[in-house]
Amino acid sequence: MTSYFPGHGDHRYAVEHYDLSLNYRIAANRLDGTARLTVTAAEPLGELVLDLGHFRVSGVSVDGRAVRHTHGQGKLRLALPGPVAAGARAVVEVRYAGSPVPVRSPWGGLGWEELSDGALVAGQPIGAPSWFPCNDRPDDKASYRISVTTAPAYQVIANGVLTARRRAAGTTTWVYEQAEPMATYLASVQIGRYQLSETGGTRLAHPARLAARVRHDFGRQGEMMALFGELFGPYPFSGYTVVVTDDDLDIPVEAQGMSIFGRNHVDGARGCERLVAHELAHQWFGNSLTVARWSDIWLQEGFATYAEWLWSERSGGPPADEHALRWHRRLAALPQEFALADPGPAALFDDRVYKRGALTLHALRRAAGDQVFFTLLRSWAEGRRHGSVTTEEFAAHAERYVPAGALLTAWLRDRPLPPASGGTLSRWRGA
Fold it and tell me: Under which main EC class is this enzyme filed (predicted)?
């Protein structure tokens, strides 16, 4: 299957660990960084190619030895001091600086973005090189240490656990450790004048003036977390943080262990609660289970969309049947121009992928019955915890529980929308 982003990533090696030390000057939008990557060769290597955006690279070393490098067109190429055998490790250090520039894409700029007072990272799918050198492919998951130094008036939130906060003259340094493996596009830094609070085991970071709205709109976060833990298995990370920026965002931003919402997503009336459910569900489907290739995006977005329907069902809203019938009617009126399991890069974030993905899961649920379906779903999430997944693997997993081959082929491989299933499920009360 052809890569959707052939200019990103390199399968000749994998990164085991990223150690990022960043200094960010907010007013100047100036980022100075040192990145140390522990890499393992998948085949004999004479050079290493990293993805990195518009920065000035001041030096590169491998295992402590300075090496020659070239940098251009989003690629940092470095000559290794000697051949690296397959299976061998090397530590690469890159020193770089400049003003972060989002990566251009069909969906606009991706990656590090300036806010009106701070910064955020929105990396999906190819924005990571806008702020650190990396092997930018979704199946190359690594552990991280992220250290950010900036002005003391600002909160810094990054993936993982805050392990240190050090004050110096005019700056504060925040250090986060992300032990569970993470794809590059899910690595994130959020910087703003945030007030911190907590609800239902979730940490909230938000402008002080929005505190009442945020507390209300995320007030059912604990119930939502409990439901998804019941259905998908235990929450897969050490913690969960919701960031609400003081800027409008087109859509919420997914990151590992956190979700980022704009002030426009907080109305004090839970008007965007389906998005709250969607982003939380991504911690299982997208962050813990990450697609090995972008063509299988339905395994993330379809599952998170179906989680919206499951939350609606449990929390007193319309049952999944009602959502499914409504969306089936809408999709049936739209062009059927791609296969769900390989929609093509232009349709990667098309709403038809999200909703047809959810309809696929609902059809599987109807075929299997609730008890088998939810057992299948939880075992999928738990059995692949912190791994990379493909459509073929999910289909094989489903077959172990229910003869679903023809059903999944129709929904995933054929372009025409299969008919809506007959009959009506009773309102689900629990798996």
Answer: hydrolase
Q: What is the pLDDT of residues 250-288, one digit of tens each?
A: 999 999 999 999 999 999 999 999 999 999 999 999 999
Residue 325 structural domain: 290-412
We report the CATH number of the domain holding residue 270 as: 3.30.2010.30
**Looking at residues 225-246, what average pLDDT do you find?**
98
pLDDT, tens digit, 9 for 90 and up, residues 285-318: 999 999 999 999 999 999 999 999 999 999 999 9
Does residue 21 contact residue 147 with C-beta atoms inside 8 Å? yes
Whether residues 262 and 314 share a domain: the answer is no
pTM for this structure? Answer: 0.96
Burial tier of 172 (Cβ tally within 10 Å: 0-12, 13-18, 19+): middle
Statement to judge: residues 177 and 261 lie in one domain? no
What does the H/E/C string look like for 346-378? HHCCCHHHHHHHHHHHHHHHHHHCHHHHHHHHH
Same domain, residue pair 299 and 214: no
Q: Classify the C-alpha dihedral 320-322-324-330 as positive or negative.
A: negative
> H helices then E strands: how many in the chain?
9, 22
